[in-house]
Amino acid sequence: MSRRNRGAAGTTFVNNVRGPTSALTSFLNERGIRRANPAPAPPVATPPENQDDNEDNDDDEPASPPNHTASSSSSSTPAPATSSRPTRTARLTRGRNLPARSTGVSQSNEADGVDDGSDSSDSDEDDDSDSDNKNLIPIAISASTTRAVRTTRSRVAVVVASSSSSNAVASSSTAKAKAAASKKRPRKKDASDDSDDEDFHDITGHITRSNFSHKGRMPQGSNKIVFCSRCRARFTIKAGTTPAVDEDDGGLLCPTCAGTESPGPSKNALPKAKPVKRARRKAQKAEIECQIPSLQDLCIQKIANSIEDVEAFGDISDLSLDKICKIISRNRSLNADTLQLFLDSRHNELTLYDCTDITAVGLQNIAQFCPNLRSLKLKLCGRITNEVMDYYIEHLTKLTSLMLIGPILILEHTYITLFETIGERFEKFELKGSSRFSLKAIKALCDSCPNITHLRLGDCNLMDDEWLEPIAGLTKLKSLRIRNPEPDKLTTPAVVKLIQVVGSGLEELELKGCNGLTDEVLVDAIRPCCVRVERLNLSGCEELTTDGVEALFKEWSVNPGLAYVNLENCVMLKDEALMAVTEHSGDRLEELNLSGMDELTKDALRTLTRCVNLIELDASWVRAMDDDTMEQLVDAAPRLAKVTVWGDHRLTECCSSRKGLRVVGREGDYVDLRFL
């Protein structure tokens, strides 16, 4: 924009100063509205007779072209100050045929330095003929507008004729309506957006959650997901199509291995069925409902999360109290302060699942506030000392069952004193994670407590074959658990001798982690002696073979059947072993653990349909488990409540399910571990 500075003697100079255009100026230029020519200089600088002459010239002459002004300003002779008025007025109102309302023009504010909004580009556009400017009428500026311009020096109020105003308002309203309509209409996705998304997926290999659709992921109708017998890749068999069959093994082939893009429709294919969405939705709803906790569980969880603010539980059942203890133990909130909420003289049993943050004084308070305890279970009790155990021996006069997990500070003589004091009333003893429990202590237990019915020893570093001799003297044993002894400390002959003595009364036998045992334990000890065993745990016994397990269950006529079998990580067992188990105990089996038995095939897993009373199954890392096997198992076992399938990649999201059944570890599923 150019700014004219008026000097002395009524001369005008052009300094050609340019700057940024304001938003108001841009808006007026777009709408074709321009402000009128400023009024002439005050009468003080111009004689009255000259001013009258100039006004007469303005009325008679049309506006001169702008190049005259530029040439006059560049010449050495100064031009009169009013010579540019007709030209500027004509330029500002060019193209508007307006009726003349007033020919009077207010005095100019040019002396105040107000910008006139003209620039060099405007002067270039005004090089038109004189005939275009004959019908142009200058726009009048009121006195109030002049005062506003002088005051703000940035705003100009232009009073235009009625026809011009209506055209401007109509054009502006039309533009606003178009802008509003463009905002309301959603932007359509063009090809560039698709290409960008494809490039992003190709680079990262990740699809955003907004583009994820469970409907698009699940096959519709009677579609089925199977695995190729050659490349082991997953592919979908669409409804009404027949996939290619491998001539070698009779398995199904994917389109890539078959050499075709997609399996063609068979001649005898039935018409394509409509998608059965309702059945799948019911199955998905059943899976979700089985994971939703009850109102009681939600209240218990709320109390457990705010355990620091609870002063007392009041009247609460033992089951709810145990659930709260589990939650706060998992949150590591069980300490000496929160322990007081669980101590009551009316309690006969107490189980603390994590005593890590409970001090020795807090552990001692258990015997002080609960003197009537008959069963005490302390897990992770690394802070319990000999003094605390002596306090228990003195005050817990009704104690018949004791479980200690991780008592690393208790010495040998304290155990001996405990067994001698309790004596014949001691019935259950479980010890795990102690390196100071020795042969003398186990002899004191067997000699002083002959009525022991449940003996469970695990992770005792000093355990060897000599320990089994005094245990053989416990003729009333119903449950015997030996877990994770040191390698090569327990031999097969010593274990066989022990089971032959106490096996007739055992209802539960566990030899977990005894990796040195062979098939002789199964054939010579368990099969002839354990006639009442209902729970058998042989997990981690890697030396056991298929022939030994098959011989045990096929010829085990003296045993009516097992309710619990654990063969976890028995890696040498094959199909015949599982077939023998299901044939012998299929009617009574309720829990079965096959985790890590990778040698099993689909034929062996199909025999699980014999287990009609099965409640819980762990088939993790059994690669042969697939959708067909799961479907048959679900149909055959109506009581099945939980199936663990970690690492079974052939089990897809299309496998059968029902209300009350939890499938844990399936690929692509989200499982809230809080409710498992």
Mean pLDDT: 74
Q: Low-confidence parts, pLDDT < 50 over ≥5 residues?
A: 1-15, 44-170, 188-221, 261-270
Helicity range: 25-40%
Distance between the termini: 77 Å
CA radius of gyration is 48 Å
Question: Can you list the strand order of the major beta sheet?
Answer: 7-8-9-10-11-12-13-14-15-16-17-18-19
> What is the total tally of β strands?
19
**Fraction of residues in β-strands:** 5-15%
GO cellular component, one term: SCF ubiquitin ligase complex
Protein name: F-box/LRR-repeat protein 15-like leucin rich repeat domain-containing protein
Pfam families: DUF7885
InterPro entries: FBXL15_LRR (IPR057207), Leu-rich_rpt_Cys-con_subtyp (IPR006553), LRR_dom_sf (IPR032675)
